[in-house]
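Please check this record.
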Amino acid sequence: MCAEKYLSNNKSALFSVEDDVDDDEFLRRPNNTSRGYNQPTSSGSYQQMEGRRLELLQQQKETEQRSVEATQRSLSLLRNSEQIGIATAEELMKQREQLERTDKRLDDINVMLRASHRHIEGIKSVFGSFKNYLSGKKDTHPTPEKSFTSETDRTPTSLSQTLSASASASKFTQDDHPGMRIRGLGGDDELRNRPENPRQVIDENLDEMVNSLSRLKGLARGLGEEIESQNDLIDKILPKVDRSDITLERQNKDMKRLLK
């Protein structure tokens, strides 16, 4: 029955006696219509897709590497800026110490000049009236002027507080100068164990950049306040210098008149 040919259908043009084939011949014929579904993709197309995938992965790695290098360069510049700011702060602190010593010495000089002036006046009034003698005796123990240094020695400056806070926030310390340097700006920080994931490296670098910018902002504010404070101190020193100069010049003239 299977070996017999199919009968033609006169009502349909789809089947005819000429088109009928037996089962063995039908099974031997290749099925061209289902080739795209049953056969795998050609090796050339697969290699092309794989090459494109590898190319995209390489581009991604290069982009991530450039991003890592860019964040590291930015972080290095920020660290250098911190070093410059801290060095400037140290110089300002030394300058403040010098100004405070100058202010105190001027107070001492003015006290001595007042004492020497009284001595000169005492010599001039040896043969003077008793009133002048009593008035000179009342001021035997002069009261020194209130020194600016005595206040600043007890109260930390704004700049030193800013540097200490910056060091605490950045979790760095300096053995030989606490609160003045932020440790980790040199080579030791570069030796830290870094994660292998580039994205994690970028995230950590960005976090460090944010912290560094915050410290720089506080440091800049502290430097500005310190400069203003030292300007006020200089304005206070200048009148003392003028007063000492005038007093010394007047005493020189008095001594010259006494020696004539």
Notes: Residues 43-124 form the longest helix (82 residues). Confidence is low (pLDDT under 50) at residues 1-8, 34-40, 144-154, 171-192. The chain is about 70% helix and 0% strand.
